[in-house]
C-alpha cells in the first residue's frame, strides 16, 4: 500500500469509494486479463499514473479521481503491474522520493528564482 499521507486519506473518502465501485461496475472483468484473452473478475482498481506522482494536493486529487486514470484488475494482475513498474520495496521508495524532489525543484524553485530576479533581490 502507498505510504503517501494524502493518498491514504483520499482512498478512504466516499468520493473514491463511489468512483471505485462505478469503475468495477462498468468494467467488471480484469482489463489486463482481457488483453490476454482470459476472463477473470476484477476486484481492484489501479491508478495508471500513480496519485503519489502529483506534487500538489490538486494534482493528486486530479490523478485520484480521473476515471481515465483507472484500470479494473484482478489481484494477481494488480500485483504484477506494480512489480513491473518497479513500484515495490525500499529501492522504489528511495527512487520515488528522489524523483519527486527533482520535480519539485524544477517546478517551484525556478519560479522562486525568477520571482526574486523580478523583484531585484540578490539570489547568490
List the helices and strands and how they pair.
Layout: H1 5-10, H2 14-26, H3 31-35, E1 44-47, H4 57-65, E2 70-73, H5 75-84, H6 89-118
Antiparallel strand pairs: 1-2
Counted beta strands: 2
Supply Rg: 18 Å
Order of strands in the sheet with most strands? 1-2
Oligomeric description of these chains:
single chain
**CA-CA gap between termini:** 42 Å
Beta-strand portion reads 5-15%
Average of pLDDT? 86
- Spell out the helices and strands N to C: HHHEHEHH
What best-fitting shape do the alpha-carbon axes yield?
elongated
Low-confidence stretches: none
Helix content: 55-70%
Largest sheet: 2 strands, antiparallel
Q: Would you tell me the structural class of the helices and strands? A: mainly alpha
Describe the protein in words:
This protein is mainly α. 59% of the residues lie in helices and 6% in strands. It is built from six helices and two strands. The protein has helices at 5-10, 14-26, 31-35, 57-65, 75-84, 89-118; strands at residues 44-47, 70-73. The protein has a two-stranded antiparallel sheet with strand order 1-2. The longest helix is centred in the last third of the chain and has 30 residues, at 89-118. The termini are far apart. The model has no long low-confidence stretch (mean pLDDT 86).
Task: Describe the structure using short key phrases.
two-stranded antiparallel sheet, 124 residues, mainly alpha
How would you sum up this structure in a few lines?
The protein is mainly α. The chain is built from 6 helices and 2 strands; from the N terminus they run H-H-H-E-H-E-H-H. The longest helix is centred in the last third of the chain and has 30 residues, at 89-118.
Amino acid at each position: 500500500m502507498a505510504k503517501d499521507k494524502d493518498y491514504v486519506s483520499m482512498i478512504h473518502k466516499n468520493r473514491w469509494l463511489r468512483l471505485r465501485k462505478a469503475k468495477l461496475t462498468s468494467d467488471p472483468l480484469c482489463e489486463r486479463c482481457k488483453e490476454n484473452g482470459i476472463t477473470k473478475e476484477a476486484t481492484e482498481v489501479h491508478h495508471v499514473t500513480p496519485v503519489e506522482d502529483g506534487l500538489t494536493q490538486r494534482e493528486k486529487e486530479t490523478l485520484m479521481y480521473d476515471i481515465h486514470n483507472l484500470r479494473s484488475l484482478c489481484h494477481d494482475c494488480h500485483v504484477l503491474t506494480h512489480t513491473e513498474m518497479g513500484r515495490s520495496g525500499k529501492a522504489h521508495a528511495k527512487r520515488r522520493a528522489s524523483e519527486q524532489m527533482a520535480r519539485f525543484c524544477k517546478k517551484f524553485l525556478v519560479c522562486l528564482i525568477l520571482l526574486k530576479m523580478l523583484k531585484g533581490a540578490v539570489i547568490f
